[in-house]
Amino acid sequence: MIIPMKRIVTLLLVIVSSSSMLAQRTYYNQAVNSCAGKSSEELISCIKNSYLLDYDFKTDQDKLVSTKEIKKPIVLITAATWSAPCFGQVPALNRMVKKYHEQVEFIMIFWDSKDKIKRFQDKLDSRITLIPAGADDKVEKGNLDISGFVHKLDYPTAYLIDKNKKFLDVKRGAATPSKTMNWDQVTDTNTKELETFISQVIN
């Protein structure tokens, strides 16, 4: 069978175009490294529209989770057990998981080791994948580097990643109970913010 020259040229153009697009991609760690020393807002601007590399994370249950195998959008949240806003966000986060777990993968990466995240584990929806820092991971001075994933923002920070592994948005912080805001108000505020955040990847 003879393939027409026009078809061959079209196929070559598609291949060249696809290769060019892949070559132009900026990946998350490249974005973070290129913006080292910049303000948090500038760092977030660098991260948006970058792409997630393939990471292999070990969960609190010692299971391996590969981001390469996840075909849904991802809400990746960095957290720390000593962070009051991280605790403040828990009820709202559980609401989001209950509502969107079939459409979105929820992952929490902790600044702490496995034995310290037990207090979170008991309060979180079991459908959230929990990733503690391992013995080989770098966790120092508030910066987190777990299995190659570098994080240099506040706790909690939520990263919204679409099904093509592109970073669409970054959300920093969460409301926490105070003299002027009770638990119900905190949960309502955090729910509205997370709903708006996650709705960007919901069809």
Q: What are the SSEs and their pairings?
A:
Elements: H1 5-24, H2 28-34, H3 40-47, E1 56-58, E2 64-66, E3 74-79, H4 84-100, E4 105-113, H5 118-121, E5 129-133, E6 138-140, E7 143-146, E8 149-151, E9 157-161, E10 167-172, H6 183-198
Helix pairs in contact: 4-6
Fourth-level CATH superfamily: Glutaredoxin
Main beta sheet: strand number and arrangement? 5 strands, mixed
* Poorly predicted residue ranges: 16-22
Structural class: alpha+beta
Q: Into which percent range does the helicity of residues fall? A: 25-40%
Overall pLDDT = 89
- What fraction of residues sit in β-strands? 15-25%
Estimated radius of gyration: 19 Å
Number of helices: 6
Anisotropy-based shape: globular
Major sheet: arrangement of strands: 5-4-3-9-10
What CATH architecture do you see? 3-Layer(aba) Sandwich
Number of strands: 10
Q: Estimate nothing, just give the exact number of structural domains.
A: 1
